[in-house]
Design brief:
By secondary structure, the chain is of the alpha+beta class. The chain is built from seven helices and eight strands; from the N terminus they run H-H-E-E-H-H-E-E-E-E-E-E-H-H-H. Strands 1-2-8-7-6-5-4-3 form an eight-stranded antiparallel β-sheet.
Length: 299
């Protein structure tokens, strides 16, 4: 079972002081809403062994996610034949969150405080590189995060990681002209980098989040391809980089250094954070829209 971490019985958590004093969680207390959700969050049993590697999609097969219906592996994880991991997470966003709101969140999750709303237990800090902030929040258009870098610090299974996600255009994986006819309302694609204490920043995989409408509700299909490690090659380090990459691309390295606990931790984390998002985003989105309307009237 994977479950949110609760404070000891009777303990008062400073970050929840307001909600504890008033006896309820206010709509505007986004951190508390997510924290209370995690306190009662329970995952299904581990899925290792339930799925076959043939159920996984390679990155080149991601286009299959555009078609209507469901695939064999929609919620779980499996080690692929090359030793890498395929992690799939399915989240019902209900009527509360739609694709426009989901994309809006990625272009407005621009501070450590907001990042912690997303997962109060695992998320430590999250900001973008300086160029991202050249455009004011109210002026950021759909997909503003594309070609920008999200610099984050978070914990997976209690272990702290320093990640960078370089967001890319969905057209790199999909024929986006088919999105509308398949009721796909948002798609976020990124390359994942991890900061290794010895090697520095290295590519470790890819992530994709796709929102589509199904029977009047929105559902989120998240996918991670983890374990295709690549050390960046430059003119100065090309010999060393190629030696490193020849090692980290082997099946033996992948099954030794990327255990099932890593895949499961990512699966649990994604499911938790997306349920948190469903919990607070509708309230934050509406509040932000109201604030923007008020500022517009003032001018």
């Amino acid at each position: 079972m994977g479950q949110g971490q609760s404070a000891p019985a009777g303990a008062v958590r400073p970050e929840l002081l307001v909600s504890e004093l008033v006896g309820e969680v206010r709509d505007s207390d986004y951190y508390a809403r997510s924290t209370h959700l995690l306190d009662n969050f329970v995952m299904d049993d581990p899925t290792q062994g339930k799925f076959d590697p043939a159920d996984a999609l390679t990155l080149d097969e991601a286009y299959k996610l555009v078609s209507p219906g469901y695939l064999n592996l929609e919620h779980g994880y499996v080690r692929m034949r090359d030793g890498t991991w395929y992690v799939a997470c399915l989240t019902d966003l209900g009527h509360e969150v739609n694709g426009e709101m989901f994309d809006w969140w990625f272009r407005n999750c621009d501070s450590g405080e907001k990042f912690r709303w997303w997962h109060p237990v695992d998320h430590v800090s999250g900001t973008y590189e300086p160029q991202f902030y050249a455009v004011m929040p109210q002026e950021r258009q759909k997909g503003h995060y594309v070609d920008h870098i999200h610099i984050i610090e978070e914990k997976l299974d209690g272990v702290k990681h320093f990640f960078q996600i370089e967001y890319e255009r969905p057209s790199k994986l999909f024929d986006v002209s088919t999105f509308a006819e398949n009721d796909i309302t948002a798609c976020v694609v990124g390359r994942i980098f991890d900061r290794d204490p010895t090697l520095g920043l290295i590519a470790v995989g890819h992530v994709m989040h796709m929102v589509r409408e199904v029977n009047g509700r929105s559902e989120l299909r998240s996918r991670f391809w983890i374990g295709n490690v690549q050390y960046p090659e430059t003119v100065e380090n090309i010999v060393f980089a190629r030696i490193v990459n020849s090692i980290v691309s082997t099946w033996l390295f992948r099954i030794t250094k990327i255990p099932s606990s890593t895949a499961r931790a990512l699966w649990v984390h994604c499911s938790q954070e997306m349920h948190c998002l469903r919990e607070f985003l509708p309230h934050y989105y509406q509040a932000a829209r109201r604030d923007q309307e008020i500022r517009s009237e003032d001018f």
